[in-house]
Design goal:
The chain has 20 helices and 19 strands. The protein is mainly α and 618 residues long. The protein has a single domain, classed as Glycosyltransferase (Alpha/alpha barrel). α8 runs parallel beside α10. The two termini are 17 Å apart. The N terminus is likely disordered. Keywords: Calcium, Disulfide bond, Glycosidase, Hydrolase, Membrane, Metal-binding, Transmembrane, Transmembrane helix. Pathway: Protein modification; protein glycosylation. It comes from Trametes coccinea (strain BRFM310) (Pycnoporus coccineus).
Length: 618
């Protein structure tokens, strides 16, 4: 295993999507204007082997759900949902960051620069909403990134006088770069480079790890030396593509320094996952807590995606991804006792104690595993690791996994995890998933005794030792637990295998993201149907006259709503749904890489001149 100087040879294959509106799509959209809204069937749908809440297809449409017209019609419905959400934003919150869909006012949660508009630019392009995109360009051109604007009803950091680095990067910078890549509008690249430059004082720490916040008008930064993994290690894609698209060496140097710091930390730790808490100037972790959810999620994501974005030449990031997933597979994946739901846990304390909870934020992870299995020769990448340079624990993980086909194992984990994340939706009367579930179950006799899950790899080892017969543990067919329309609220009882700990739903995209990637990597239509059920639930439970609202309790139907329409609902949730239902593969996974806000960036390789200019070693 070599932790050498970062190596990024790549040659740009810039491909701009011209998402033309075909005749059949126009016809489907026109038909949709007459379609009835989704209906709650309260149980299973058309196929007993395909759990969903599918509303009847309107009379006159093909009943065959493999029909391209059916799926284009469904894509048109998502497009209409985007129009509804964006129209409400423009009508009631134009000039502000986000819409409060119940009180019909705007709020500045993210710098006061119209974050919903910036976050939506590439969604408009992919959906062919040319008029909306064109109308947004003058606003982008006139925006003042040096001026922070808050509102009394904003979150705490918006009143602090600093732009939150992580959120600004993934929403604004990522949105501008992606919209430029899709449209070729130079204005967007110019504004992106300007914003990147204004944010770069955040990198002025000893090891180049960014601080939490920066004032883009003065260059002042937040003083704290503490950082969390997701916020310090989720800007590589944006700065790398900005460097490539602008030929700006400063942009490149920032990301190169950050990656070298991460690689040095991994070399010192000799493998495994990165913990969640870091000291910025030291460039080292200061805890042993692990997570693929809050505080860590996108950092793991960017290890693989940096490798893919740079034409599969950045070997250091691939190595760090492999070592990370080795530990997740062997130490953080569990099976629940009754239903054998596969879930990924975080840890508590310093002794690697599993918390046995599944966060909605962690439901991006099955999609990441499937993406890696689809785009990378995982067996070759695993074989390239040098076990003599690993810690005793990392060597144990390596030895255990060396007995398996890594691609098949990653895909099995992706299948099981994605199914569990979907079931968190399908089990609820609202059809939408909770923020946090405790993965313990009440035993079948109704007592209060809780039982924890078992390590997935222990179960897989048992399966292997018994001759590898039948599906891998956690990957067998599963169905939601039935409920009746008379139930006002779902209460924890056997045999759920979990307890809803936080019942709110913030219009989050992670489960839909994984469902989309599972569809694109497997071609299994069950994933599309599951996504369709979730979209119907959104229409039924979250839609308001002015947009879409977060929910307070997914365990009820109708679910009580919250006065919140986050920008990522338009940037991610609706985008992934549209891509899931679209018959055309608008964003091929081997040619584009999504940042953590679902902004696609094109895969490229460095030119010889770029390698010379930036000092990139071959």
């Amino acid at each position: 295993m070599a932790f050498a100087q970062t190596m990024f040879p790549r040659s740009r294959s810039a491909r701009y999507i011209a998402a033309a509106c075909t005749a059949i799509f126009v016809v489907s959209t026109l038909y949709y204007l007459e379609l009835p809204g989704p209906q709650h069937t309260g149980g299973f749908g058309l196929d007993e082997h395909l759990p969903h809440w599918s509303a009847p297809i309107p009379t006159g449409y093909p009943q065959d759900e493999t029909s391209p017209l059916v799926w284009e019609t469904r894509a048109a419905q998502v497009k209409d949902a985007f129009r509804h959400a964006y129209r409400g934003y423009l009508q009631h919150a134009n000039g502000f960051d986000e819409l409060r869909p119940l009180s019909k006012v705007g709020v500045n949660n993210f710098n006061g620069w119209n974050v919903t508009m910036y976050d939506s630019l590439d969604t408009m392009l992919l959906m062919g909403l040319w008029d909306e995109f064109e109308a947004a360009l003058p606003v982008v051109a006139q925006g003042d990134f040096r001026l922070l604007r808050s509102t009394p009803n904003a979150n705490a950091w918006s009143r602090s006088g600093y732009a939150p680095f992580f959120e600004t990067v993934i929403r604004y910078l990522g949105g501008l770069l992606s919209a430029y890549a899709l449209s070729g509008e130079k204005l967007l690249l110019d504004r992106a480079s300007e914003l990147a430059t204004l944010l770069e004082p955040a990198f002025n720490t000893t090891k180049g790890l960014p601080r939490f916040g920066v004032n883009p008008g003065t260059g002042a930064v937040t003083p704290s030396q503490s950082g969390i993994l997701a916020e310090i290690a989720s800007c590589q894609l944006e700065w790398t593509y900005a460097a490539h698209a602008t030929a700006n060496k400063t942009h490149y140097d920032r990301v190169n320094t950050l990656i070298n710091t991460l690689a040095d930390a991994m070399e010192e730790r000799k493998g495994g996952m990165f913990p969640t808490n870091w000291h910025l100037s030291a460039g080292k972790p200061v805890s042993e807590s692990r997570s693929v959810g809050a505080a860590a999620d996108s950092a793991h994501e960017y290890l693989l995606k940096q490798y893919l974005l740079t034409g599969k030449q950045d070997i250091e990031n691939l190595e760090m991804y492999m070592l990370t997933t080795n530990e997740v597979l062997t130490r953080l994946l569990y099976l629940s006792p009754n239903r054998e739901l596969l879930y990924v846990s975080d840890t508590t304390g310093s002794k690697f104690t599993a918390a046995h909870r599944l966060e909605h934020l962690a439901c991006f992870f099955p999609g990441l595993l499937a993406l890696g299995a689809h785009t990378v020769d995982l067996n070759a990448a695993f074989a390239a690791l040098d076990p003599t340079k690993l810690s005793a624990e990392a060597r144990r993980q390596y030895t255990l996994l060396s007995q398996y086909d890594l691609r098949a194992l990653h895909m099995a984990a992706a299948e099981g995890l994605a199914t569990s994340c979907w079931l968190m939706y399908a089990d609820q009367p609202s059809g939408l998933g909770p923020e946090v579930a405790d993965m313990a179950h009440t035993v079948r006799d109704g007592s209060s005794k809780d039982t924890k899950g078992i390590l997935w790899m222990d179960a897989v080892e048992g399966w292997r030792n018994k001759g590898r017969t039948g599906p891998l543990p956690g990957t067998d067919e599963k169905k939601p637990i039935p409920y009746t329309l008379s139930e006002k609220e779902r209460t924890p009882q056997a045999p759920w295998d979990y307890v809803v700990r936080r019942a709110d739903y913030f219009l989050r995209p992670e489960t839909i993201e994984s469902i989309y990637i599972m569809w694109r990597t497997t071609g299994n239509p069950v994933w599309r149907e599951r996504g369709w059920g979730i979209f119907q639930a959104l229409e039924r439970e979250a839609k308001t006259p002015t947009g879409y609202a977060s929910l307070k309790k997914v365990t009820q139907s109708p679910a009580p709503q919250s006065d919140d329409q986050p920008s990522y609902f338009l940037a991610e949730t609706l985008k992934y749904l549209y891509l899931l239902f679209s018959n055309e593969d608008l964003v091929p996974l081997d040619k584009w890489v999504f940042n953590t806000e679902a902004h696609p960036l094109p895969v490229f390789t460095w030119s010889e001149w770029e390698k010379h200019k930036f000092g990139i070693s071959n």
